[in-house]
Amino acid sequence: MLKTIIVLFTGVCLESLGNVLLRKGMKEVGEVTSFSIPALFNIFIKGITNLTVISGVALDAMFFACFLIALSWTEVSVVLPLTAIGYVTTAIFAKIILHEEITALRWAGTIAIVLGSIMVGKSGGS
User: Fold this and answer.
1) What total of structural domains would you count in the chain?
2) Which of 6, 16, 69, 107 would bridge with 90, disulfide CB 3.0–4.6 Å?
């Protein structure tokens, strides 16, 4: 179980950083203001050529590899709740890198999600 936790924690940190980089990159690319095909295509091209977006996608792909490794070792009902800590790590990275304000209410909600996931993970199975 320890190797599963280590791989998942590593993966979750990669995913959290990847998600923050995706947000940063999309701020660089620009806001989606129109859902017309040409406008969406333009945003798509800007996104796939933006190094920050590419880095975010790569880190999220590394998380997915860690997730698949963990799934090869244990049940999804164990693995998925363990990824809930990603809500905390994402908030921390967002605060540090994006300088987002994380209010007390948002922290409380984040902790509630993590605690709920822990309860689900401990509620059954072998």
Assistant:
1) 1
2) 16
